[in-house]
Amino acid sequence: MDYVSTTTPLTYAFYEGPSWEPPAPRERTAPAATEPMLRTPQAPEPSTPDLPRAVGWMIVGAYGAILGAFGLAFLGDAEVGLVLGVCAAYLAVYLGVPAVILRMEPKAETRPDLADFLRQGLSTWTGRVSAGSALAQILTIPVALAVAATGLGIIVRLSA
User: Residue 18 — φ and ψ, nearest 5°?
Assistant: First the structure.
């Protein structure tokens, strides 16, 4: 874009840049007739088709062990019972929401049993993962938390 001096009216008169006036309205034309596209519903893809139900129960067991370890370590007061009740309610929501979501997905394929999973592994976007690697990635945090809660419970019971 060229610099235009606005100090003299003569140079401004010859400037053919953008105008502050709105453009003239364009002539409206009717859109071309096209066939309507019918939207065919597509079934969503299952979120965990390669995981057996046993892996989900392993996760539930690990978090149940955490809650049980806290219960055995700290149960004795009514206040602790209330706190553990709140923790149990949060745990039910934490594990219940994925269970509801998994029940809503289509049942197009059957899930493998644990033996097939251990033999075949898990398919991911980057390729296949062995069952041991998949279980390590899935269960590391819950099992580590369960071990830590059990250790904490033992320390509390021994020091009391």
Answer: -65, 145
Q: Are 145 and 66 in contact (CB under 8 A)?
A: yes
Cα–Cα distance measured from residue 76 to residue 53, given in angstroms and rounded to the nearest whole number: 35
Q: What is the model's pTM?
A: 0.66
Considering only residues 134 and 34, tell me which one the structure prediction assigns the higher pLDDT: 134
State phi, psi for 52 to the nearest 5 degrees: -75, 160
Q: Which residues of 44-70 are buried (b: 16+ CB within 10 A; e: fewer)?
A: eeeeeebbbeebbebbebbbbbbbbbb
pLDDT digits (tens, 9 = 90+) for 101-151: 888 877 756 778 899 899 988 888 888 899 999 999 999 999 999 999 999
DSSP states of the chain as a string? Answer: ------SSHHHHHT--S--SSPPPPPPP-PPPP-PPPP----PPPPS-TT--HHHHHHHHHHHHHHHHHHHHHHBTBHHHHHHHHHHHHHHHHHHHHHHHHHHHS---SPPP-HHHHHHH-EEETTEEE-HHHHHHHHHHHHHHHHHHHHHHHHHHHHH-
Q: Which residue has the higher pLDDT, 79 or 131?
A: 131
